[in-house]
Design a protein that fits this description.
Blueprint lengths: L11 H7 L20 E2 L5 E2 L7 E3 L2 H9 L6 E4 L7 H4 L12 H5 L5 E5 L5 H9 L4 E4 L5 H15 L2 H18 L11 E9 L2 E5 L5 H7 L3 E2 H4 L5 E3 L2 H7 L3 E5 H7 L1 H6 L8 H5 L2 E4 L1 H4 L6 H17 L2
Parallel strand pairs: 3-4, 3-5, 5-6, 7-9, 7-11, 11-12
Antiparallel strand pairs: 1-2, 7-8, 8-10
Length: about 325
């Protein structure tokens, strides 16, 4: 059983590099707490009332948030992971946020660069700052509360606190509406998220990944978490046997490269899982399911609908 929805694939290198536990924030540079209207990045660097006339975003979710907060017309370049909104897809590219070069960013004459704790290398960030361009570093949250905090911080950075509060209210309502009430599924399925770009890239996700709250909200149990996986690990027959998923979710782009269901089942370990035996494979575009941004409720709703359908199947 396969489900697809339209989407644009990420660059492979950007995705693989981004599949890590959210980085911890750096040490705070200031000893005194700054005013609440001053943005303080996760690396401790403060930015007060930046010029937002020319913004470069360094991850797909940040692009979406900037547009949602009403500054889309100021975005002059994005990194390659941007797949929405449609107005942003065709914008010039500043490169790959996880493998950044100063030249790739500065050639767009930005007045503000927005990245996160996975933006790398740090030396490039410092080069951009040395050129006189502020670089804001946001968190990479792995919970809905963390997502809300990130929106608040963006509101402070961009001078859009009211818009950020409204967006948070809307997102909370959408997430609540899309989430399955506890106990809706009599026997919640064990759901494993397997990231793949093809046979050479195969990772089982676990605790600390953005997929966990989506799986839980959709009424499932994260099989990777239950198996004790921290972050992500290479897929092996032993790892799959330990996770014992009833449902496996994969990126549709990688699923196609593998040759669909038959190709996935040809990889050692998959056919032996309950999901493989029952054909319970769900494929969604990376740019939709992995982007922990303003469209997250749509991912929850789709997965919840599909899990309910699989649970009801004879």
């Amino acid at each position: 059983m396969t489900h697809r929805r339209p989407g644009t694939s990420f660059a492979a290198a950007a995705i693989v590099a981004g599949l890590v536990l959210a980085a911890c924030g750096g040490a705070t540079a200031d000893t005194a707490a700054p005013p609440s209207d001053v943005f303080v990045g996760m690396d401790g660097v403060s930015i007060d009332a930046p010029d937002t006339s020319r913004i470069v975003t360094l991850s797909g979710d940040l692009t979406e948030f900037v547009f949602e907060l009403g500054l889309g017309s100021s975005v002059v370049a994005t990194d390659v992971t941007t797949v929405a909104p449609s107005e942003a897809v065709g914008l010039p590219k500043a490169g790959i946020g996880r493998f950044l070069t100063a030249e790739g960013v500065l050639k767009h004459d930005p007045t503000l660069v927005i990245g996160d704790t996975q933006t790398a290398p740090v030396s490039t960030i410092e080069q951009i700052r040395a050129a006189g361009v502020p670089v804001a570093i946001l968190d990479v949250p792995t919970s809905f509360n963390g997502l809300s905090d990130k929106v608040v911080q963006l509101g402070v950075l961009l001078g859009r606190t009211e818009e950020a509060a409204a967006l948070n209210r809307r997102m909370q309502e959408e997430i609540a509406a899309a989430s399955m009430p506890e106990g809706t599924l009599a026997d919640p399925p064990r759901v494993a998220y397997v990231y793949t770009r093809g046979p050479d890239v195969m990772l089982l996700f676990g605790a600390g990944m953005t997929t966990t709250p989506v799986i839980t909200a959709a009424g499932g149990i994260d099989a990777g978490v239950e198996a004790g996986v921290e972050g992500n690990i290479p897929v092996t027959p032993e790892a799959l046997a330990s996770a014992a998923p009833n449902v496996i979710v994969v990126p549709s782009e990688g699923y196609a490269v593998l040759g669909g269901y038959d190709g996935l089942m040809a990889i050692p370990g998959f056919a032996s899982t309950p999901a493989g035996a029952n054909g319970a494979i769900l494929a969604y575009p990376e740019g939709d399911f992995l982007t922990f941004g303003p469209r997250i409720a749509a991912s929850i709703e789709l997965l919840a609908t599909d899990l309910a359908s699989l649970s009801a199947a004879p």
